[in-house]
Structure formats: structure tokens, C-alpha cells
């Protein structure tokens, strides 16, 4: 199985009640793509459905694979219990798509959310390039679906936000409908500090520095990772399903 980016924590309930189910999504969402990888996706689904009751998802991620994000989003939307998403530091790119599955999305006052257009690296002639552009347009539309359901915003406005690579602080995210409120004193599982695990300002800044480094590294490595347009079409079909 590929490297895990999620961790389940069953915390003791109040007054002897049932334990609360809390899921931590930290770091890059899937170091390797979930495309054509049913093993990792099935493991996540089994663990999600292996318990019952409401689930709280803590997201602190610069993003990652849009296939993994799409499948996790769908699993959470289909989960029979209530799903609450809490963002202590950063939910950017694909991580923001996962966040849209929350019935309630709460952000630390110092947290950030970022939305942008999907991107890829492809090789081939002009026909391959044209096909890749069509695929990216369709992937963007599929991402807009999730944002539209959560925010109620027009597709045209969401598309402009993605075109501009929009960074939102917590209040801006609430104003635009990407989040529902602010975290206030709820500790992150495994932490004795506040929702940011300490000084939230520095936590958010640190996450942004790591995101910039990650994107820079991906850009450099992308020159050596070539993807055909046919592969992109197969990935699009997976997202649609």
C-alpha cells in the first residue's frame, strides 16, 4: 500500500458516551496517484465505513492528487453519519476539494484555503496538447461541482477564483461560503495546544512555505514525468465515476 496520509483516532466520549471518530488528513494527499489504484482507495473506504456515528475530519494539507481528493470527497459525501471538517492550518488545492464534503467546515482564525486551476504535464503532438487542454477543462468543471454544491456560488465566479489562484483567510472563506465558521478553542487530536497546535500564525506561515517548496519541486520533477493525453482521459473518466 502507498504511504498513508491519513490517521484515525477514536477519542473517548463525554460522560461515558461512545467515542468520537476523528480523522487526520495531513501532508500531501497521496504521494502517488490513486489512478488505477483500488487497493489504497478500498483501504480508506473500509476504515471509514468500519465504524459508525459522526466523523470529524482535520485537514492540514497543501493538496495533492485530484483523483484521490475526488474519491475521498465522494466517500465522505456518501457516509451515513454527519461529517464535520476542521482546518487548523491549510487546505489548499485538492485538499480544499475534500473539505467541501463537510456539512460544517470550520477554520482556525489563522488558517488558509486556496483554490486554483488543475494542472498536469503531458507530451505529444498538437493533437495530444489539444486533448490535454480538453481534459483539464473537464477536470476543472468537476472540481467546480464540489465548490458549487458547498458555496451556492455561480460557476462563473468560482471559475474566476480558480483562474486567479485565490488564497482565502478564514473570514474570507466564510464570506464566500467555502467555510461555515471559525474554530474557537477546540484542540486538535494529539495536541495539548489550541486548534493550530500552538501559535497559529506561524503554523499557517510554515504550511505556506512548505506548499511553495512542494510546488517548486513538483514543477522541476514534472519535466521528467511525462503523461499521455490518453492517460489523462482515463483519469477524467475515473473522476466522473
Describe this structure as you would to a colleague:
The chain is an alpha/beta fold and 241 residues long. It contains eight helices and nine strands. The strands form two sheets. Strands 1-2-3-4-6-9 form a six-stranded mixed beta sheet, covered by helices on one side. Strands 5-7-8 form a three-stranded mixed beta sheet. Strand 2, helix 1 (38-49) and strand 3 form a beta-alpha-beta unit. Helix 1 (38-49) packs parallel to helix 2 and helix 2 (66-78) packs parallel to helix 8 (229-240). The longest helix has 26 residues, at 126-151. It is globular and about 60 Å long. Mean pLDDT is 79; it is low at 192-205 and 217-224.
Outline the secondary-structure elements:
Elements: E1 6-11, E2 20-26, H1 38-49, E3 55-60, H2 66-78, E4 83-87, E5 90-92, H3 94-99, E6 104-107, E7 112-115, H4 126-151, H5 155-163, E8 166-169, H6 170-176, E9 181-182, H7 200-222, H8 229-240
Parallel strand pairs: 2-3, 3-4, 4-6, 5-7, 6-9
Antiparallel strand pairs: 1-2, 7-8
Helix pairs in contact: 1-2, 2-8, 4-8
